[in-house]
Every structure is written in structure tokens, then in C-alpha cells.
Design a protein that fits this description.
Helix content of chain A: 40-55%
Number of strands of chain A: 5
Order of helices and strands of chain B: HHHEEHHHH
Distance between the termini of chain A: 87 Å
Number of strands of chain B: 2
Radius of gyration of chain B: 19 Å
Oligomer: heterodimer
Largest sheet of chain A: 5 strands, mixed
Strand content of chain B: under 5%
Shape of chain A: elongated
Structural class of chain A: alpha+beta
Strand order of the largest sheet of chain B: 1-2
Helix content of chain B: 55-70%
Shape of chain B: elongated
CATH architecture of chain A: 3-Layer(aba) Sandwich
CATH topology of chain A: Glutaredoxin
CATH architecture of chain B: Up-down Bundle
CATH class of chain B: Mainly Alpha
Largest interface: A-B, 35 and 29 residues
Number of domains of chain A: 1
Number of helices of chain A: 10
CATH topology of chain B: de novo design (two linked rop proteins)
Amino acid sequence: MKKFYLLFGAVAAIGIGVVGYNVGSGVLGSAVSEPIELDIADDAELVELAQGVTKGDPDAPVTIVEFGDYQCPGCGSFALSVKPQIDGTFVESGQASFVFYDFPLISIHNNAFLAARAARCAGDQDMFWEYHETLFRNQARWSTATSPAGGFEDYAGELGMDEGEFGSCLNSDKYADVVTANLELGERMGVTGTPTLMVNANNQTRRVNAYDYQSLATAIELVMSEGPGAN
Amino acid sequence: MKDPAVASSADEGPVAPATNRMVITILSLVGFFVASYLWAHNLGLTGPIVCGVGDCSTVQSSEYAMVGPVPVSAIGVLGYLALIVLSFLGLQPRHRQSRLIGGLMLAGSAVGVAFSAYLTYLEAAVIEAWCQYCVVSAILMTLVFLACLPEAGRLKAPNL
């Protein structure tokens, strides 16, 4: 029995060591998961840094803007149910472009900032929109994770991305400044919740107070019908 | 002061501990850590899953990685833990001839091996991707089941 106990102890020690090391390195990973201090002099600099991600023709007459949070259920519903219709009707036809800005509500959504960075990292491999949808489809799974970075890397692998490159990006501070700038831009524009939708055309901006397809389509048609300088 | 020879004799008991139960304990302990690593990963407590062979990411992010709200890995952790406790108890002098413990281990490992076979089928035919940890766990559970087979003989043996 003594030999058995020794073997049992050795296997237990190795197991605890391996699992403990992996948990420790995961929890203590260096991925930046909250806004950082920005050294920005003026609004112009903020706007330049706070780049949204555009889908469709950037020169389309109408721009649909969303300020969204990957942990927000409404944003998930919009991304998976309404946005595909908007894409099909307005974006793919060249009538409008769609720009997504990050607005992670970090006070209530612990993982939203990291998710926003993850999507930006996916953008490095031209997979932003695929990853964007994947995050929303799996929202219930990663939202409550203590440290969702591992899961985010799994999604990258599932989408056929280079996991090493994605992991290097995620486990760093890359895009922390851009996502923070998105957040600050939204705050300065009066965004308080998500999803916040706006439609821009003819130098006019119309905020859409609902996120169903009909409300957005009506707003797009309205701004398109207004001439330059109207409103 | 306790006589070491007497203490050793009392620890060993009148019936020698069953070797198969020692094997079950060690195999289950290894399985417990394999499942724990996957569970920790499912909980988001680890970094990216280390997968030398196969495509762990696809398997772990598939819908089959969960049974309702419970990760499959958590079921594995609990199953292996139960086998460790039972086999460890079955090694103690007063339980070395316990049919109840033997029966529970045999039934538990049979359920485990059937569940592992189902998961292996899913990997091969439905997900079409392999997770090396799931394969290792399936092999371990099969070995545990084989090591449990002598318990069937004990169940049939007359009471001593």
C-alpha cells in the first residue's frame, strides 16, 4: 500500500501542478480588459483614434452607425436578426454603409471590453464581421466566464483564423486605445445605452430610438429623402 | 509508542488490497485532472486550450460540449471523482470485500464508458474534429471499466 500511496501522491502533485499552472497563467494573463488612460489633446485626435469598423461602400450616400456592446442582449438581437436584413436591403445594394463603434458598458458587463478587443483582433485577419456575429451567437456562454480569453481564442480557431496571431493580439493591449476612444466618442455624442443607432446622410444625423428593422428602414428612407441642409 | 510491525499489519488488514482497485484509483485520478483542465477551460479560467493533436477548439466550442447548462467536462470531473472515492474506500481494510463498492464502481464505469463512446462517436461523425483530451479521457474510462471487471467476480462470490 505504501507504494500505492506514493504513486497516488505523485500523480496528484503532477496533476495539481499542470492544471494549476494553466489556471494561473489564464487568470493572470496580460490581456487588457478595461479602458485605458488616453493621452488625447482634442476632439479631432479622439475622432481620428476612435475608428469604427465599416461594412459596405464607405462612400455610400447613407451611413448607419451603431454603438454596441458585445455583452448587451439587445445588441445581440440586433446583430443576429435585424442587421442581416439591413445588410441585404441597404448595404449590399450600395445605398448605405454600416459602421460599428464599440461602447462596452464596463460597469455592468465585465467581459465586454475584452470582447470588443477580440473582435478588433479578428479584424487584423479580415474576419471582424464573422467574429462579431460569433461573439453575439455565443454571448450566453462567455458573458459569465471569469476570464473569457481562452474561449475567444477558441472562436478564432473555429473560424479558421491563425490562433497564434489572434492570441498574441488578444493577450496584449492592442486596440485598448481604439476601444477606449470609441467609448469616449460615444459618451461625448450622448450615447448612454446600447444599441444606439444613428443614420447619417446629407450632413444630417438622425438617431433611431428603436432597433427593429422597420424603424431603421424608415429612418434611412427619411434621411435619403431629405436634401442637403434639410431638417 | 506504537510497534511499527503491528501498525503495518493493522494497516494492511487480514485481506490484501485488490490491485485492480489501486489501478482504478490511479487511472481515475489522471482522468480527473484531464477533465478538470477542460472544465477550467470551459469556465474561462485558462488561456487558450493547448492542443498538440486534433482540433480541441472546434470540439470545445461545439454545442455538444454542454449537456443543457452543464459542461461535459464537469460531468467527467464528477464521474472520475466518484470513482476515486469509491476505489479508495474499497482499498481500506474494512471495505476490501465490499460488494456495494464493487457494484457501484462497475456500474459507474459502465455508464462512463458508454458516455465516452457516445462522445467519441460525436467527434468522429458529427463534429468531425478530435479533441485529444476527450480521446485520452475515453481511453482512461475504458481502462477503468476493464479494471472494474474483476468486481463482477466478487459480486458473484459467496459472502465471507
